[in-house]
Amino acid sequence: KRALSVSSDDEDFVSPLAVDRKCTDLPWFVAFVALWMAICAIASVNVMSGNFAHFIAVHDWINHTCGRHDFLYKEFLYFCARDGKLDFTKGICRSECPTSHETQTLCFNTRSYAWENFTDYPTRTILPMFARICWPIDEEL
Hints:
It is built from two helices and eight strands, in the order ααββββββββ. The chain has helices at 26-48, 52-56, and strands spanning 76-78, 81-82, 85-86, 92-94, 104-109, 114-119, 123-126, 133-136. Strands 1-4 form a two-stranded antiparallel sheet. Strands 2-3 form a two-stranded antiparallel sheet.
């Protein structure tokens, strides 16, 4: 193995300053700043209108705010599992996250367009201070 020579006499050596380089991160930086500005604008509008709690709260599929108004005691968002997969389009508000398979939840079935009882799955709470979402413990869901 040959040691890297930094002398100018070595004809294989190319200085890092001599390589023509371009900044490829600039477009991503601009997009990142633009997205942060949009997030800050949306948040500031909600703060000024006095509706910031609605901005960070979770909503079910019918646009009820979990933990507010008629759903004051149903503050957790839960997604029903059908055929071993979560249905993220039809989240519902619950009073607590299920901890076992021994209970059932009344969920809207998108195949039959009717309310049906679905067997629960063990969950844990994600972001308990803000978005109270029941997330499955089993990674296969």
